[in-house]
Amino acid sequence: MSSQRMLDRIRHDKRIWAHRVLTKHDQNPFFRVMKSVNAPVVDVEDRSVIMLGSNNYLGLADHPLVRAGAAAALDKYGATVTGSRLLNGTISLHTELEEALADWHGTEQALVFTTGYQANLGGISALCGVGDTIIVDSAAHASIYDACRLSRATIRAFRHNRVDLLEEKLSRSTGVVMVVVDGLYSMHGDLAPLDEIAAVCEKYDAALFVDEAHSVAVMGAKRTGAAELFGIEDDIDARMGCLSKGLGSSGGFVAGSKDIVDAMRVHARTFLFTTAGVPAALGAALASVQLMQTEEGAERATRTLANARYLHDGLVSAGVDVHAPSPLPDGTDMVSPIVPVNVRDDLRTVNTWRKLWDAGIFASAAMFPAVARDGALLRLCVQPDHTTTQLDYVVEQMGLFLGENSSTPDSAPAEVGAALAAPAPASV
After folding, report:
1. What is the mean pLDDT of residues 5-10?
2. Fewest CB within 10 A of the end CB: N or C in the chain?
3. Domain 29-57+296-421 class, CATH top level
4. From 3.30.365.10, 3.65.10.10, 2.40.10.220, 3.40.640.10, which CATH number describes the 62-292 domain?
C-alpha cells in the first residue's frame, strides 16, 4: 500500500493535474497511440494524419533493408539477449555494429548502449566525477543534465550557444573540465557553433562531448553529424549518437578513442547494469549504417533537408513565426529536419495542436520544462518522402491558425486554460 504522504504529494502535483484535465477534454497532445509505422502518413487512434512529429528523419524505420536486418537478427538470436554486456549479453552483432560505427565516424572505437538516453547518462558520468567540472549548454537535452548530476561533478551552464560565456566559465575552471553540447538541438532545430566551441575547448585544455542524436545520418558529406559538417571531427573527444532517429532503429552509441571508450566500457553504469539491446534493433541499426554509406543514403538526406527548407520557407511566407536557419562557417545556412514554430503561450500551443489534429496533421507540442517558460512551440519534423502537396497543406493550415492574419479563435474549455496556467487545486 502506498504511503499517504506520497499519495498526497501526487494528488497535488500540477503536471499530473494538467495531464488529467487535458486528457479529460481530449486536448492532450501527449501519449497518443500510433497504429502504424511512423511514415509520412500515420494511423493515430481514430484517424490518419500527416506525421510531422516523428524523428524518423530519413524514413528508414520501414525501409526494406532495415526490416530485413531486424528479421535476420531476430531469427538468429531470438527476441532478447537476457543479460548485460558485461556478462552474457554481448552478441556478435554488437561488435559488428560497433566496428561499423567506428569506421563510419573515423574513430578508434565505438560503444553501443541500449538507448540514447543511457549513452549520455553512462558516457558522461563515466568520464567525469567528484572534483571535476562539466560545462553544459543551457539548452542541452535532459539526459545530459541527468548525466551531469549522476557524475557528481560540479555543473556550470552557459547561455545557449553563447561561446563568449562558455569561454568565461572555462577561464575560471581548474582540474579536469569537460564541455557538453548538442550538435543539433532537439527542440529549436538549431546547430551549435561547434567550430568555435572546439577552439575554446582546445585553448583551455577542456574535453569536448557532443550529442549528435538528431544530426547523425542527416548532416555532413558522410552523414555522421554536425561535427563533420563543421569539419572538426578530430577535435571532439566523444561523439554520442542515437540509432533511433535518423538511423530508424533503437539504441545509442558513443564513438571516440580507445581510451575514451574503454573508460565507458568499465565505468558506465548504464552499460554494465542493464540488459543489452535486443537483436532486432542491432540488426536494423547495422543495416542502416551500411545504407547511410551508399548513394541512396546520401539522396535520402538531401531530400530531407530540401523538405525542411521548403516547409520553413513556406511557413515564413504564410506569416508564421519560425526559428531562423543556422549559420554555417562558409557563410551559407541550414534548415535542419526540425522546424520549430514559436507559439510561446502554453494554452495557445495546446489549442493549435488540437486544430492541427482535427485538420489531419500531427505536430509535437513542447512546453516547459522541455523548453523555457513562455517558450512553448510546435515542433515539425520532416521526412524525405513527404510530398510538396502534403507540406503545402501544412503551411496552409499553420497560416490559418498562427499566421499574421490568423482569425480562428481559441476554443479550449476553461478548465484546460486553468490547468495550464494555475497551481494545482486542493486535490486532483
Report:
1. 92
2. N
3. alpha beta
4. 3.40.640.10
